[in-house]
Design a protein that fits this description.
Number of domains: 1
CATH architecture: 3-Layer(aba) Sandwich
Order of helices and strands: EEEEHEHEEEHHEH
Shape: globular
Number of strands: 9
Largest sheet: 4 strands, mixed
CATH topology: Rossmann fold
Distance between the termini: 24 Å
Length: about 180
């Protein structure tokens, strides 16, 4: 698709997952980088545009208690090197990925209320999205999730996007056009 008229790409993924960026879907498992990120990087209409991914999946089966109580001599994370064939890609620039939890750990979900990460993210996007930067919102979400889960879930971010991005700037700009 051609996204030339858009200011950014935002993708939310809520599913099951496992270590090394594996996302589960109804039909199979997908590698986040190979299936989604590299596809975004191949799309020339997204060059120099921010690409924001919000990933709410487990990234393993560990809980903080499990890590602390395991035998120190046991190899908890067997080394696995997955090499993706990278060709015809632009450098992964303008990319921000906000994960609900840290690599190797579970992401908690309440069967009645849903995911604390997604609920908190949506709450803060509504509350601050018009006038605060995305990084401000992310910091608030990280803090709120850690507090609400008593430190058992720690969202993390991977990014090379260092500019300030405020959704309200673009919403106000587009509404003044009409």
């Amino acid at each position: 698709m051609n996204f030339s008229d858009h200011s950014c790409m935002i993708i939310f993924i809520l599913s099951h997952g496992d270590r090394t960026s594996i996302i589960s879907a109804k039909d199979t498992k997908y590698n986040l980088e190979d299936t989604i990120i590299f596809s975004l990087l191949r799309n020339g209409s997204l060059d120099e545009k921010p690409k924001f991914l919000f990933i709410d999946t487990c990234k393993g089966k560990n809980t903080p208690e499990k890590i602390r109580n395991e035998d120190a001599n046991e190899q908890r994370f067997p080394g696995q090197c997955v090499q993706s064939q990278i060709h015809d890609l632009y450098i992964p620039d303008y990319l921000l990925i906000f994960y609900s939890t840290y690599e190797g750990f579970v992401s908690y979900c309440n069967h009645r209320d849903g995911s604390i990460f997604t609920q908190t993210l949506c709450k803060y996007l509504v509350k601050y999205g018009q006038d605060r930067s995305l990084m401000y919102i992310i910091e608030k979400v990280m803090e709120a999730v850690k507090v609400s889960k008593n430190g058992k879930q720690s969202p993390c971010i991977t990014t090379n996007y260092l500019k300030t991005y405020c959704f309200g700037d673009y919403l106000n700009q587009s509404s003044s056009i009409f």
